[in-house]
User: What shape does this take?
Amino acid sequence: MRGATLAMPRRARLPSLTALRAFHVVFQCLSLQRAGEELSVTPQAVGQQIKLLEETLKVTLFERKGRSLQPTESALLLATFVKSGFDEFAEGVRRVTKSDHRSYVALNVSPYFATHYLVPTLSVLGEAAPSTEIRLTTSVHLPDFEQDEADIAIQWGYGNWKGYDWTHLVSDPKVICCTPAIARNISSPSDLARVGLLNSIAAKRLWEDIFRHLGVDERPPVHKIGFDDSATMRRATLQGIGVGLLSEIHADEDIRSGALVAPLGREVLSDMPPSDVPGFYLVAPRSKLRVASVAALYRWLFDEDWSVARRLALGNART
Assistant: This one.
């Protein structure tokens, strides 16, 4: 209607940046003493800022448990957004003060994914980003995107990395494998409860999910040695240390050579629920994706059909 004016929604009044900074640090270390050391102020000054923030927001953020602080549900929710805000600040400062910071894109990749998925596509990747230098590193751990100067990661796991944008690229189904000697003691799923099982440090839930899927009520007797990466677990399985969970490509290579067998069958886990199957995920802080070269590489990795690379690698492992 002519002459009418639209009322603008009122913006919530933001707390002071000093109070939010104090909250950010306290949430990370859960100690006023350590937060004070980080901020170069007294613990009392930090406590005053937290109290000011709680009064402004009219919520309780921390509860004392002995000498430590425990975040409330309100703090857990707020921390995600505050971290994103400070990440944006840090990225803006870097881009203003270091003009050469974005002369390359740093991509950190799980070693297994790098070997079997990414390396075979490097020539195509080079064509997709001809003017961008890509620095590739490999690690089984999610990088500290600030300290490690990583822009994008391809990480193994189950997703749900808080504070980051992440998306599923391809599943990494596992095959139960062991040496022929160990296999002689395994004729049914329940026999797994009486042998040594090799454990993945990064996914301790794997064996429990498998036991539930196979209908075994007993708790899995996980071996005392935990393995940080798939290559080391594979070597331990080949040496007869216990029953391992191998990615399909490695399993097919070792089964074809006769070094390992799948005592319950190659496909016994093929119908596990997708939510119980680990995979490889594309992970990046939202602040990094504001850089054009980083966003372009992220889009290429996202758009690529990695299931095709998986099928090709499986075909090569079986021939």
User: Anything to note?
Assistant: Residues 1-9 have pLDDT under 50 and may be disordered. The longest strand covers residues 165-171. The two ends are 73 Å apart (CA to CA). The first helix runs from residue 17 to 29.
